[in-house]
Amino acid sequence: MADNPMLKFVGRAQAYPPKRDAAERAADFREIARKYEVVKAEEQSARCSQCGVPYCSVHCPLHNHIPDWLRLTAEGRLREAFELSNSTSTMPEICGRICPQDRLCEGNCVIEFSGHGAVTIGSVEKFITDTAWEEGWVEPLVPGKDRGQSVGIIGAGPAGLTTAELLRRQGYDVHVYDRHDRAGGLLTYGIPGFKLEKPVVMRRVERLAAGGIVFHQGFEVGRDATLGELRERHDALLVATGVYKARAIKAPGVGAPGVIESLDYLIASNRKSFGDAVPEFESGALDAAGKTVVVIGGGDTAMDCVRTAVRQGAKSVKCLYRRDRANMPGSQNEVRNAEEEGVEFVWLSAPEAFDGTDAVSGVRATKMRLGAPDASGRRAPEPDPGSEFRLEADMVVKALGFDAEDLPRLFGAEELSVTRWGTLRVDHKTMQTSLDGVFAAGDIVRGASLVVWAIRDGRDVADHMHAYLKAKAKLPAERAKEIA
């Protein structure tokens, strides 16, 4: 009987791909982890326990076949591992890079519970698909037989791109409309290169364009066409815009020059990485070089901002967050990476006011303590009286999360129904909005969430749109029979 290649977790320690030295990686925007060598990927995959109920798959929004492709990797069957990984995800190498595996698959790995350290699922997922690209195993997008129907997708982020690919495979004419000059949405302009290098995103976009998906870039619905005009142009529409309205801080001095929005800051930095001319960066307004930087917030966007500021050559970088480390929403891996790169975290602290009129000069803050749990179950922060303090700052980045823009007004479609949070209201059985043939998916429905959930929503809505379009195609023939 052949030796079982799996269940090696007892005698084989967990080993992630080595990270580049903090000083080295803080000087550029390249990804911080080196790639696995083949033998290391096989060894780490072989640690999987192949448990009967794979909690890693259960807790993956895409329900990826994780134990199966880990076994194939351990056996050296990389092409088969890629094909299986690719069968449930349109962007496995992107999820492998940016998913918070510590909260999803790896955080629910059975051998993690046993104290042996989770299988390094995300790193293996990234390795499999990067290898597939290098070896030419990634197949071109081949459209299905032409159905004579057209689909419009508003938003070229992960949800929109996933739906575009799946519907193009079904033979639909697919047009993607996006306000930016490059597709990818958050993947392109919101996430820094040290987490997701931009050629990784662009090769996905180029594959879709080569498969016949038409991209309309620099296109704003409401300016270049109303939602109603797009409905006339297409047989079905998907709204997958994401949520991009920054949450505000109500505090004296918040309007001072130098107090900036996180997304403006990240977009400017990512544009520079593409070689674009960015006047706000060149002027210094969105460049942290030589500055004393304070970032306010504790999510992944805040982590992206502090680590970007380090790479831009900031004099110092502090992160001000109102809860403690255990209660922050961002990835703990990102916090560790930031600390290694020289970021200082100021826990249990919240801004009260911003000093400076011609330019911000400091943040006045107060210490917080955690009180009773709020509606979300997390202990609510409350001010600790008499604990005020001040931080010097000549750049403050607000990274408190995002809400939905006013799409009915922006799109010229007041009849588009929204929830009290401003997200689009959908029938969750069909993912259709209040307008016939107009669907919605991703963050614009669920609120600010993870890329992997956007991909899942894109996958689900593609099925619903396909069913709707098939039914719509039959209607004229059925009506003709009734008239006859």
Notable features of this structure?
about 475 residues, alpha/beta, Fumarate Reductase Iron-sulfur Protein, Chain B, domain 2, FAD/NAD(P)-binding domain, five-stranded parallel beta sheet, 19 helices, globular, iron, GltD-like, DPD_II, metal-binding
Count of extended strands: 15
Please state how the strands of the largest beta sheet are arranged side by side. Answer: 3-2-1-4-15
Q: Spans of 5+ residues with little confidence (pLDDT < 50)?
A: none
Q: What name does the CATH topology of the largest domain carry?
A: FAD/NAD(P)-binding domain
* Distance between the ends: 70 Å
**CATH C-level class of the largest domain:** Alpha Beta
Estimated radius of gyration? 24 Å
Q: Which shape, going by the Cα principal axes?
A: globular
Helix content: 25-40%
**Main β sheet profile:** 5 strands, parallel
Name of the CATH homologous superfamily of the largest domain = FAD/NAD(P)-binding domain
Q: Based on the structure given, which CATH architecture of the largest domain is correct?
A: 3-Layer(bba) Sandwich
Mean pLDDT: 94
Structural class: alpha/beta
Strand content: 15-25%
Q: How many H/I helices? A: 19
Number of domains: 3
